[in-house]
Each structure stands twice: as C-alpha cells, then as structure tokens.
Design a protein that fits this description.
It contains six helices and 15 strands. By secondary structure, it is of the alpha+beta class. Strands 1-2-3-13-5-15-4 form a seven-stranded mixed beta sheet, covered by helices on one side. The chain has a three-stranded antiparallel beta sheet with strand order 12-6-14. The longest helix has 15 residues, at 215-229. The radius of gyration is 18 Å and the shape is globular. Bound molecules: succinic acid.
C-alpha cells in the first residue's frame, strides 16, 4: 500500500490495494492509522457491490446510526446519495459540516463510494480541523479549550429545516422531524483517540451555539471560527470517478458537497462508522 499526499496540507491517495478482494487485520489497522493522520483517504478504481462495500467498512469499524434518511432496501446502514440530472432542490451535504455532529457519539469516519458521476463537477471539498486548531494563536486556543459547542440537527432536519419536509421531487427520501431539535454538547476542541492531535470540533451546519456565552458572544465567535476553518490553505478537494472510494475522518475534518453539476446525474453509496463521545484529553 503506497500513500501519496493529495495536497501540501492534508489528504492522501492510497495506491496498490484492491479493497473488494478483502483485506487482513494488518492492512485494516494501517488504513485506520493513515486515515487518522491524513484526514482523508482516496482509493481509485475499487470494485464493490453493496455487500462488498459493507464488508469492507466492517473491516475498519462498526456501523454508526443513520437518522432522517431512508437507507437502501435491505441495507439499513447504507445510504444512496442520488441526484438526477434535473433535480433542483437543496443538495444533501452542501454546507460545511462534520457528519452527524449532533449525535452523542458522532461517526468516527464516513465512506463514500462513487457509482455514477458527472464528467466534471460534483467534487467534495474538505478542510482539516487539525490545521484549523493548530494555526490559532496560543491565547485563542486557551479560550477555546474551556468551551463546549452546542450541536443540533434542527436547521437541517427540524420541521422548519432545509430537509424538514419530504420533497416529492428528490431522489432521496429525507424526512426531518421533531427529534432534530434537541441539543448536544461537545468540547469545541477534541483530541483524536488515535493520533492524540487536537482538532477544532465546530461546523456551520450543526454547531448552533457555545455553552455559557451570550447569543452575541457565541455568534461572533462561531462566525470567526467558521470563516477560519474555510481558509483555502486548510482544504483539499476530491474529484470523483466511478469506482473512487473516499474515506474521511469526521473527528479531524469537515466536508462540503459542491453544487456545480446541474444537468448531470450523480450516484454514490455512503456508510458512516460508529465513533466515540468527543473528549479533550489533557496534553
Ligand atoms: C456528505 O455530506 O456526506 C455528502 C458528500 C458528497 O456528496 O460529496
């Protein structure tokens, strides 16, 4: 297995491995560690059917909980992210976020496998939350270390959220409900259980406030942090081909589905892997 950096910042392409034909424990551990270190791993020309995709995922983790979206028939842990060429509704994933960060134990990682993609367009952008944290001043870091973010699915899946009502024109069955309005606290800075590195655990889609601050303090600080995370120097971008599998670490990255392919069809399969409750370890 050869690991080649995707950019000078983070992310890597992994060469010389055929995941569909099965991997051993040593390779699985090498992938888990490479993911924790690089944040994003891209594997090209992988051949999976849905069973094979699930089997590979279970080599590197356990399935996480997948709320609000009807999964593939007979595969409760697999989502089909489908957008037909003429669809115009809100695009799933098109906002900076870390998957399901509103859960008590948000997913450690997400696997996304491309089946049908536009010739150009429909890339996924990523930003490194390790770099976002590490590049802050020591004074700002010490303020953030004591704070907790308030995460909620309300803006996306609450009754008034982007996907709050079923859209009959959508190829995906996304169904928000009242359960989305609950709040979950997580440290603003978390330690990665494998690398020990600290990352900034905030995202524009699901972080709705900061515990203990006034609304004005919290919205100003979050605005600063959201902008800070999006700096081009902290990002990488994956161009898809049929057969590309990308895995990202939700503990160390955010991602954004780019909405630039109207007139083209895109079909992907997605699995999230279970994670742990975020903690900030003392250094
Ligand atoms: C997601 O947020 O999981 C979707 C990413 C994508 O479709 O590129």
């Amino acid at each position: 297995m050869e690991i080649r950096p995707l950019t000078g910042a983070f992310g890597a392409e992994v060469l010389g491995v055929d995941l569909g034909s099965g991997i051993g424990d040593q390779q699985a551990q090498a992938i888990q560690m490479a993911l924790a270190e690089n944040g994003v791993l891209v594997f090209r020309e992988q051949a999976f059917d849905i069973d094979g995709f699930e089997k590979f995922a279970l080599n590197i983790g356990e399935f996480g909980d997948t709320p609000f979206i009807t999964p593939v028939d007979g595969h409760p842990n697999v989502l089909r992210l489908l957008r037909e060429a003429d669809e115009q509704g809100p695009l799933f994933g098109s906002g900076w976020h870390s998957d399901w960060s509103f859960q008590l134990k948000p997913p450690s990682a997400t696997l996304l496998y491309a089946v049908d993609v536009p010739e150009a367009g429909g890339d996924t952008a990523f930003t490194s939350q390790y770099l976002a944290f590490e590049s802050l001043s020591e004074s700002m870091k010490s303020i953030l270390l004591s704070l907790k973010g308030i995460h909620s699915a309300e803006r996306s899946y609450g009754p008034k959220g982007t996907f709050g009502r079923p859209d009959p024109n959508s190829s995906m069955d996304i169904h928000g409900d009242e359960t989305a309005v609950v709040h979950q606290l997580h440290p603003l800075v978390r330690s990665h259980p494998l690398t020990g590195r600290r990352s900034l655990f905030v995202n524009e889609v699901y972080t709705v406030g900061i515990e203990g601050l006034t609304n004005s303090e919290s919205s100003s600080l979050l605005k600063f942090l959201f902008e800070h995370c999006k700096q081009i120097d902290f990002t990488c971008r994956v161009r898809w081909e049929p057969g590309t599998l990308t895995i990202w670490d939700n503990r160390a990255t955010q991602h954004f589905a780019i909405n630039d392919y109207f007139g083209n069809r895109r079909e992907m399969y997605r699995i999230t892997l279970a994670g742990e409750q975020p903690v900030l370890a003392s250094s």
